[in-house]
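Job type: complex structure
Entries:
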Amino acid sequence: MKILVIEDEPQLLNNIKESLEKEKFLVETASDYYSAIDKIFIYEYDCILLDIMLPNGNGLTLLSELKKKGENENIIIISAKDSLDDKLKGLALGADDYLTKPFHLAELNARVNAVLRRQKLGGKNTLEIANIIIDIKERTFTVNSKDIVLNRKEFDIINYFLLNKNRLVTKAALAEHVWGDNADNADNFDFVYYQIKNLRKKLHSCNAEIEIESIYGIGYKLIEI
Amino acid sequence: MKLLNQSIKYVSFSILAIVTIWAGIFYFNMLNEIKSSIDEGLENYKRIIIQNSQQDTTLLSKNYFDESFFTIQRIEKEKALSVKDRYLDTVLYMQDADDDKPEAEPVRMLITAFELNGKFYELKVANSMVEEDDLIKELLNDTIWLYISLIVGIVFINNFVLKKLWKPFYDFLSQLKKYRLGITQSLPKVKTKTKEFTDLQNAVNALLKHTTETYEQQKQFIGNASHELQTPLAIATNKLELLIEKGNLQNNQAEDIAEVMSIIERLVRINKSLLLLTKIENKQFLDNHTVSINEVVQKNINDLEDISSFKDVKIHLKEEAQLSVKMDASLANVIISNLLRNAVFHNNTNGSVVVEITEKNIKISNTSSNLKLDEKLIFIRFYKPGNKSMGTGLGLAIIKAISDLYSFKISYSYNNSMHLFQISFTE
């Protein structure tokens, strides 16, 4: 899988590159409008991460150029502007997702994997990992062909972990993804812990061959047993 | 007190003083004038009498006042020599058509002495005078009328002329009263040729322009600063996330990193809240639709369910009416979710939150171990009582900014150990 990251901030670019390389993606980078244009028109990518504000050009212009060309790459916009306008404009121009800075690497990783997963499944909605089948559209969770009832939030947690398989998911990233602003309070990490504890119990009792590991009390990692 | 009435007050006092003094001086001057002209007449009369008495000696024995107003009496030489012409005000009994009996009437009397054929006589000549009390009465009467007509005239001038002159000023003032920094687009302006008013207008507008510029710059600065912080904060968080993923950390090192991460998280939250505040103040949310507050509340209670049940806080919703408000949907959500989150997070175990929706209001009250809050301070940015909370200190400031944007009224009260926040959605 080849990914192009277009971002002008070198440190952020390195972080994203390093994180994506852990996923065994082939990562290429561009840090201004012209080098981005060059790369986009010469090579093909599975996914492009696009910063809207670039030196000597706007990411949105680049996006429309790309769509004019008839390319079908997956595009995720990364922007420091949390503006609904930009988001709608970006999505209307054909972007697949829109991520606002600052973000957790787990969140970026989940978005990239979700976009690629959609492409890979090609219309199918089910995903198999170990002895588990997860239906993303129907929101069902099956272990050894047996339906396990998960509530809405539990399903979101599992799905998020699966998109970040073998990767660190911090409590903050998880809380933000699943509970949104409602959990943006540091003293609510106990609450996240409590939810994970319940989920672990469920996974254990149905003999699921996945496990949610604790990482230094900062976050978790989903692994196959 | 209005300027108009103030000026009437001062003018009427000063006119009262001026008219009173003038009346006094006028009275004495007039009296003197009358007396001196009577005195001239008496002098003349005296000469005629003395002349006449040389021919008609019977006159010399006329020692009472009759139709001719004089008496002559023989006196000693010594006494006569010491007599000097004296004019005095005295009374004589007189009777006229409307008097039943003689009445004392004021007269001017000249007392003098003369010598005739070696004999000395005292001559008293009288002439009737104006009655002083009548004069005073007349004068007082006229003065009062003068005073009244002056005041009426001044009130008239004030009301019709001054009001007209001051009109540009009052117009300017009413525009200034309605002026809201950062909201009103145009500067207050009136058409006038009065120099004082154009000066005032220029001075005020220069001040307003400067203040608006400062205000805009400050707003822009907060917005830009927050915006510029997004990327470094992203870099910092991501670096730490990568560091943890690398492993090989001691537990205490990991704890330190966790602490730094939570500090960065807090910075991110403060930053996001500041950006939101700036956007609200810049009116970047004005996608107004009719929003059902009932639905927003239900959705938020639903979203908070996990956390509230984890904290053992019960949320009771009392919907007495359907409340719809014309406003930006995302801001409606910010208001409700901030209030509900506060009510849940600042609660105690086994506590409760009561949400009451009426036709025009929403009331959100909660139990808490915190004591009464200071309603004057809680809506100020970064105010954090006790400094315990990990919050941004901006939640209520954001609610206040949204309420101000739409002219909603927000109030806080503390009753029966419940903290109550109420928003009235009436303008």
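Summary: Residues 244 and 271 of chain B are 24 Å apart (CA to CA). The longest strand of chain B covers residues 103-116.
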